[in-house]
TrEMBL record:
Chain intervals for the UniProt region annotation (Disordered): 1-44
Protein name: SKP1-like protein
Taxonomic lineage: Eukaryota, Viridiplantae, Streptophyta, Embryophyta, Tracheophyta
Species this chain originates from: Setaria viridis
A Pfam family it matches: Skp1
This protein's pathway: Protein modification; protein ubiquitination
Domain SKP1 component dimerisation: 161-207
Length: 210
């Protein structure tokens, strides 16, 4: 399945699938998946199955990942690949090895091309129940510091899917907690005086009743 050159944000569904999808000029534009595919086309070639690139953490540790998955799941990596910056490895100076390992795990798991037995390729659009469960387990077993590092890595790499997963985990950690408990959980220093806190509570009393 391929979008022709010159077309913006269009996709054609093959025979056997339900109907066809086309992004018109008035719609919001291409999805992350379509942008990833467009990057490969703009580079002047299709990325072959099994083609790998190397990502390097801030300490120089190398991690191999599918070029196709990287381009499709990370806008930042897609830009690097399109610019021909992936041949010697992509250095990620603000991402540590532990966080980058989780990024690669996420890419490998979400890569639709992992099913080598499938003869027809279709780009990933939304996580299945199995993927959602895998995502949940990925963040559930992280320490708080490791979770923060992964949030920053997902944000830096412009990985919308991974950023959503990690931020939902943070939201769950804050759910049902008071302001003081949230500060304690995340080691946030309270820079308000007692008088300022009381004023805020008076001005926004409705919020504290929720």
């Amino acid at each position: 399945m391929a979008a022709g050159k010159g077309e913006k944000g269009s996709a054609v569904v093959g025979k056997g699938e339900k109907g066809s999808v086309a992004a018109g000029k008035g719609e919001k534009g291409p999805t992350v998946a379509e942008k990833g595919k467009g990057v490969a086309e703009e580079a002047g070639k299709e990325v072959a199955d099994g083609d790998m690139i190397t990502l390097k953490s801030w300490d120089g540790k190398p991690f191999k990942v599918s070029k196709e998955a990287a381009a499709r799941l990370s806008k930042h990596l897609a830009e690097k690949i399109a610019g021909g910056c992936s041949d010697g490895g992509i250095e990620l100076e603000n991402i540590g090895p532990e966080a980058l390992e989780k990024v690669v795990d996420y890419c490998n798991k979400h890569d639709p091309y992992a099913a080598a037995s499938s003869s027809r390729r279709s780009f990933y659009t939304a996580p299945s129940k199995e993927l959602e469960e895998w995502d949940r387990k990925l963040v559930d077993r992280l320490s708080q510091d490791a979770l923060f590092d992964l949030v920053e890595a997902a944000d830096s790499l412009k990985m919308d899917g991974l950023l959503d997963v990690t931020c939902r985990k943070l939201a769950d950690m804050m759910k049902g907690k008071t302001t003081a408990q949230i500060r304690e959980t995340f080691n946030i220093e309270n820079d308000f005086t007692k008088e300022q806190e009381e004023e805020i509570r008076r001005e926004h009393a409705w919020a504290f009743k929720i």
